[in-house]
Amino acid sequence: MIEPEGSKYWQIPKRGRWEWFFMRLFFAVVVWWSLPTARSMLDMVSQPYPTGIANLVDLTFFSNPEIYQVVYWVFCAALLVYVSGFLLPIVLPVMASVHIGMITIYNSQGATHHSYQLVSLILLAQWVVYWVPWVRKVFGRQALSLPEGRHWRDYAVWYSLQVIAAAYVIAGVIKLMRSKGMWIVDSPNLAVQLLKTNAQNYYGRLETDAVFEQRAALAQFMIDNPNITRLFLGAGLLIEIFAFVLLINRRWALVAGIFILALHWGIDMTMGLNFKYQMTVVAIFLVNAPYWAGQLGKRGGIGS
Fold first, then answer.
1. Spatial separation of the C-alpha atoms in residues 100 and 83, rounded to whole Å
2. Distances from the Cα of 12 to the Cαs of 27, 151, 153, 275, 304, in angstroms?
3. Counting C-beta atoms within 10 Å of the first and last residue's C-beta, which end of the chain has fewer, N or C?
4. What angle do CA 64, 69, 71 make, to 5 degrees?
C-alpha cells in the first residue's frame, strides 16, 4: 500500500504545486464570495459600534462609491494574481487588508458576528508566511533558509491549518468557560434558542420558513429527552475542543474535516445557523479532495 505523503505525526506535510494551486483557486473563490457587496457597504456611512481596528481607524471610506469600486477591482486583480501563484508577498497584504477592513466596518454596525473571521485569519496567516522572508530580502537582511525540499507553500498551508484548529478549539473552550464547565449539562436549554429563532423568523417576515415546524418539534424533543440532547450536543463540543488533532497528519485532517462539516450541517439543519464560509474553508484545507483523488488514482489507493 502506498503511504500518503505527510502521514507522519505532527510534521509539516509537503504540498505539491497542483495541490497548492487548487487550494489557492478554491480559497480565492471563498474570499471573493465572502466580501461584502457594494450595496451593503454603501449603507455603512458610520461605525457606531467600532470593533477591532475600527477603534483606531475610520473605515467609512469604504462606503464611498468611487473608492469602493477602485478597491473592489484592485482586490479582484489581487485574487487573480494570488491564484496564479505570483507576487504572493505583494497581493496577500492587499487581500488581507481589504477583507479585514471591510469586515471590520461591517461588524461595527452593532450586529457583530463571526461568519467571516476564519477567512480573514487565513489570509493574515498566509500574508505573514510570505511577507516576512520577502521583507527581509528587500531590506538586505539574512535570508530565511528552508530545509531541503521545502517550499513556503508548505508553511502557508500549515499555518492556515493552525488557524482553523485554533478557531474551533477556542470556540469549544469559551463555551466551557462561559458556562463554568456546565455547558453539556445545560445544553438542553438550547431548546429555548430554537424557539427564539423560530419567533425571529416569523415576526421578521410574518410567515413561517421551510423548517419552522421542524425546529419546534426538535425543541420539544430536547426538552423531553435531555440526556439524549446532552449526548449529541456534547459530541459537538468535543469535536471543537479536539479540533487540534487535524494537525497530526493528513488522514487526521481528513477525518477532522468530515466531523466538522457534519457538525456544521447539524447546526444548520436544527438551528438554521449557516456557516457556509467555515464549511468551504474546512473542505478546502482539511478534506482536500483534489489531493485524496490523486492518492486514489495511485496503485494501492490511500493506504493504511
1. 19
2. 20, 11, 11, 28, 19
3. C
4. 90
Q: Which of 258, 182, 138 is nearest to 130 (CA)?
A: 138
**Which residues does 245 contact at the CB level (< 8 Å), separation at least 6?**
252, 256
How is residue 90 written as a grid cell?
A: 505583494
Write the Ramachandran bin of 147: left for phi over 0, alpha for psi from -120 to 50, otherwise beta. Answer: beta
- DSSP character string of 48-105: SS--GGGGTS--GGGGSHHHHHHHHHHHHHHHHHHHHT-SHHHHHHHHHHHHHHHHHH
pLDDT tens column, 212-250 = 777 788 888 898 999 999 999 999 999 999 999 999 999
Which pLDDT score is estimated for 148?
75
Residue 194: HSE in the Cβ half-sphere, 13 Å Cα cutoff: 23
Residue 261 to residue 33: CA distance in whole angstroms: 19
The torsion of the CA quartet 184, 185, 189, 193, rounded to 10 degrees, works out to -10
Closest CA to 280 of 83, 113, 119: 119
Spatial contact of 263 and 242, defined as CB atoms under 8 Å apart: no
Longest CA–CA span in the chain (Å) reads: 68
